[in-house]
Specification:
single chain; about 250 residues; alpha/beta; TIM Barrel; 8-stranded parallel beta barrel; 12 strands; about 35% helix
Length: about 250
């Protein structure tokens, strides 16, 4: 049986780890290198690094910082933010990333996914989807760090991207982001049940029960969280022990 993964996320702005609520009210959460090393030592299964303003500021991801973090961890490392070309991907892989996450650039030019998958392998390509449930109860794709709404439904875009070669999907619910009120179980389960690739649920993790729910009801393959780990509200070893005791297969 495949174990469920616990993934801390480092949202990076100006070289620091930050965290917001519903993609707004951004505040400092610490030094990314120190946090990365801590999470690796605590038994995190993977680490995600998202340069949250790279796309908006039209610049490359901070490869020097990626390089430093990679030297302090021994777990799979996914990096996203401002990635548009094969050269961008190559630089990050050379600096210690194991996988890259693409979002806006992939949506604007979907054939990018196909090119990246052919050159680097589907296992290396993670599609990050910023999703928002609107008044019509449908989930829509948002771009540019949650600033730009599209008319594309999340399920439709996810299927299209998987057909093009995406190996994993990181689904972030903007409605739940930073609220600590629980993950978006319905849309997570919908993707998990209809797609052949792993789904990482993100947005809303606030208690150990929320993680249990996203694995059992949401059928997620992995759960990503930030503030509960950064501000030491939940310790990864305690969370894993709770999940293990609750019957969820995790790497202890």
């Amino acid at each position: 049986m495949l174990t469920k993964r616990i993934i801390p996320c480092l949202d990076i702005k100006d070289g620091r780890t930050v965290k917001g609520v519903n993609f707004e009210q951004i505040r400092d959460a610490g030094d990314p290198i120190e946090l990365a090393a801590l999470y690796a030592s605590q038994g995190a299964d993977e680490l995600v690094f998202l340069d949250i303003t790279a796309t908006v500021e039209q610049r490359k991801t901070l490869s020097a910082l990626v390089h430093k973090i990679a030297h302090h961890i021994n777990i799979p490392f996914t990096v996203g933010g401002g990635i548009k070309t094969e050269a961008d991907v190559r630089v990050l892989l050379q600096n210690g990333a194991d996988k890259i996450a693409i979002n806006t650039a992939a949506f604007l030019d979907p054939i990018t996914i196909n090119r990246f998958a052919k050159q680097f392998g589907s296992q290396c390509i993670v599609l990050a989807i910023d999703a928002k449930c609107e008044a019509d109860n449908l989930w829509y794709v948002y771009l540019n760090g949650g600033r730009t709404k599209t008319d594309k439904l999340v399920v439709d875009w996810a299927k299209e991207a998987v057909d093009l070669g995406v190996g994993e999907i990181l689904l972030t619910s903007m409605n739940h982001d930073g609220t600590k009120q629980g993950f978006a179980l319905d849309i997570t389960a919908q993707l998990s049940e209809n797609l052949p690739v792993p789904i990482i649920a993100s947005g809303g993790g606030g208690t150990e029960v929320h993680f249990l729910e996203v694995f059992t009801k949401g059928k997620a393959d992995a759960a990503l969280a930030a503030s509960v780990f950064h501000y030491k509200e939940i310790a990864i070893p305690d969370l894993k022990e709770y999940l293990h005791q609750s019957g969820v297969a995790v790497r202890i």
